[in-house]
């Protein structure tokens, strides 16, 4: 089996040898790892184009890698399937989608069997951080529940997160990596016998008879709950620009799935659009996988994510272009480069500022849309329904966990299983955990030039307290009673470096003058093991913003039980306290190419990926006064494809706003079963396997 596209070493993730199995791609024998999805197996074999669209022969690849779209459809053993949600089977015959596939022959009429039905007090849709936290809280009150999740592993996006979390250690495991939090929560839930957990199970629809259709391990069943909790999370937003459907343009979540869950190397050079936490963290995960991050563009004048995330990327050598937007993805059959440009105060590209950078992948990280269908369907059916996590409000996973806990108690009270009053402090804490980044304060370095002490390179108020919790001498304090204050150190320090390894942002260094007042030892936390550092090696040390300070020799590399390494250098006292990190990626890899001369975005860009409907086709009917999206679908087929409008609806609504319409005047698409495609064979043979 070719392993050139697989991650062989990772600074955080354990590489476990899995059994190799054969499968066939367009009659060519390839090898996959047992249990991995078809899409990941194809990427591991260097295949990124999964077919061509029947309408215009455009190449098709992955986009969401989360079952939300249908971009990655292939034909597996004669059946169209989403390759990102279908595991490879031994000797499976997989073919690309070219034109319209022939339907398999049916020798006999289908047999319709009775549908298995279940009743439960609570149905939780989604086993991510909020759903798991709510389920744990409900289980404490012995509330019978069924939790369904469409993945084989519980944890939602936690299973993709190799970084340590922010927030509070007590309330949401701050300082612990997302992959470890997923295991902590799922293990705790499985200890309760009142909780039934169904993985590989997708909620399809909440019907008017107050039953929920579930696709469970390729069987169709029904659940009749007293209460529904929608914890289904969110789906990634898309942008409209020339080349936006080229293979190589996909969501940041899809990238993290390939890299951190499936340990596949999908790219050599990525460019990121969007400076929120999702985009910034995806860039860091790419660096951990040994992938070059050649740049990140953010339309606002400052990145919307935590400044410590942005600073961490810049220190590693990633250029960040604020007040920039993407003009085009360039390439014939897949991405070869990206063109960006500066934008003015009206968010319009400034002519002459175009930059084209070579890359093979463009990650779209411009926000999320809540998956709120189930909540709306349940309300229409007259059911009691709650939402939590991203399905209710887009926020950090730390907030999702804490709010899931609160929602669990609310549901227990609604079922008369608990009389517990939710403390007012919890509501205040929940508000803090979901708060966006607060003000940036002046960057003040310590005045001391003796002894040993930590230096804090975080200047933005965000909810975070691991450093205060791990100091064995309790010498680190937050300036505010809430989690939003900045940390400060006063008093004695032993140089244990626990605060360095606990900090989620790696934004603490330690300066030790005890042995040499002129050349103090500086300790730098480091997690990019794909760029190994050894004693004696010269490294480039940088300040908080990633600006060059000096080249210094490494005197020691310390491994810790948190998998965070400590890199130690001797630095001139003039710069010792300014050192905030080290650069590992050469700035030259982001050098620009000749930029094409581009006019403003025209009507030819694709809005509906499934049906290849352009902005011009949609805009024509909007300008004729069509305000009913159902009618717009009939006229253009936009939203009629396999994804059911999940990807294009928000883009079409944006076009309405651009044309001067208020969204309250727009009639939205009618939601119809089902949430995802289901083979008719499964609905006809409706029995539990």
Write up what this structure looks like.
This protein is of the alpha/beta class and 689 residues long. The chain has four domains: 1-102, 2Fe-2S iron-sulphur cluster binding domain, sarcosine oxidase, alpha subunit, N-terminal domain (Ubiquitin-like (UB roll), Roll); 117-234 and 370-433, FAD/NAD(P)-binding domain; 452-590, no CATH class; 602-689, Arc Repressor Mutant, subunit A, CATH 1.10.10. The protein has 17 helices and 37 strands. Strands 9, 10, 11, 12, 13, 14 and 25 form a seven-stranded mixed beta sheet that branches. It has a seven-stranded antiparallel beta sheet with strand order 26-29-30-33-32-31-34. A hairpin with a 5-residue loop joins strand 31 and strand 32. It is globular, with a radius of gyration of 26 Å.
Observed structural traits:
alpha/beta; about 700 residues; 7-stranded mixed sheet; 7-stranded antiparallel sheet; FAD/NAD(P)-binding domain; 4 domains
Compact summary:
With 689 residues, the chain is α/β, with parallel strands linked by helices.
SS class: alpha/beta
Instruction: Supply the CATH superfamily name of the largest domain.
Output: FAD/NAD(P)-binding domain
Query: Regarding CATH, which class of the largest domain?
Result: Alpha Beta
The total domain count is 4
- Kindly report the CATH topology of the largest domain: FAD/NAD(P)-binding domain
Rg over CA atoms, rounded to whole Å, is 26 Å
The portion of residues assigned to helices is 10-25%
Shape: globular
The rounded distance between the terminal residues' Cα atoms is: 33 Å
Number of strands: 37
Strand content: 25-35%
Number of H/I helices: 17
Overall mean confidence score, pLDDT = 91
Tell me which oligomeric state these chains represent. Answer: single chain
Give the uncertain stretches in residue-range form: 597-601
Can you name the CATH architecture of the largest domain? Answer: 3-Layer(bba) Sandwich
Q: Largest sheet, if any?
A: 7 strands, mixed
